[in-house]
Amino acid sequence: MSNILKIVLNRAGIVPRHFSTAVAATNTATTPTTPGSDLSDEPVNIRNPYKQERKLCILCRMKIHPDYKNVRLLSQFQSPYTGRIYGRHITGLCKAKHDLVQREIFKSQNSGFMGTYTKSVDFTHDPRLFDPERPMRPHKY
Ligand SMILES: [Zn+2]
């Protein structure tokens, strides 16, 4: 900024919008700030607020390993009306756990612990992990 312009700005006492305020601030006498004080404009190291949290499915979060003998757990991923295994858009499971659950359900059905077309009546009043009518992820059907 030229000296003439500074003099003009000081006389007028106003700062036009298109001038940066940082330059104008140097004209006014301010108290010197140290980097440690609250008034300093030094960047502060903080956690990135825009970083997305890693999403874990319910089995990964609770560290549950499905087993073919745990019929109560496996039956929660089965429809009580048709015996169909719910898809990932309904259960919200990750691919690895979904494949594991599916494999364990087939193993359990072949062993005779679980029904193929029905769910055991003992487990009908178990709390539901998800609502099949309102899927967690949208799907194209
Ligand atoms: Zn998972």
Characterize this entry briefly:
Keywords: Ribonucleoprotein, Ribosomal protein. The chain has 141 residues and is mainly α.
Query: What gap, in angstroms, lies between the N and C termini?
Result: 65 Å
CATH topology of the domain at 58-123: 30s Ribosomal Protein S18
Would you tell me the overall average pLDDT? Answer: 80
Q: State the fourth-level CATH superfamily of the domain at 58-123.
A: Ribosomal protein S18
Overall strand count: 0
- Shape, per Cα inertia axes: elongated
GO cellular component, one term: mitochondrial small ribosomal subunit
GO molecular function, one term: structural constituent of ribosome
Organism: Pseudolycoriella hygida
Protein name: 28S ribosomal protein S18c, mitochondrial
Describe the protein in words.
InterPro entries: Ribosomal_bS18 (IPR001648), Ribosomal_bS18_sf (IPR036870). One of its GO terms (molecular function) is small ribosomal subunit rRNA binding. One of its GO terms (cellular component) is mitochondrial small ribosomal subunit. This is 28S ribosomal protein S18c, mitochondrial. Among the domains are: about 1-30, no CATH class; about 60-125, Ribosomal protein S18 (30s Ribosomal Protein S18, Irregular). Helix content is about 35%, strand content about 0%. The protein is built from six helices and no strands. The protein has helices at about 5-10, 20-25, 60, 70-75, 90, 95-110. The longest helix is centred in the C-terminal third of the chain and has 17 residues, at about 95-110. The protein is elongated. The chain starts with a helix and ends in a 30-residue tail after the last helix. Zinc ion binds near residues 57, 59, 60 and 97.
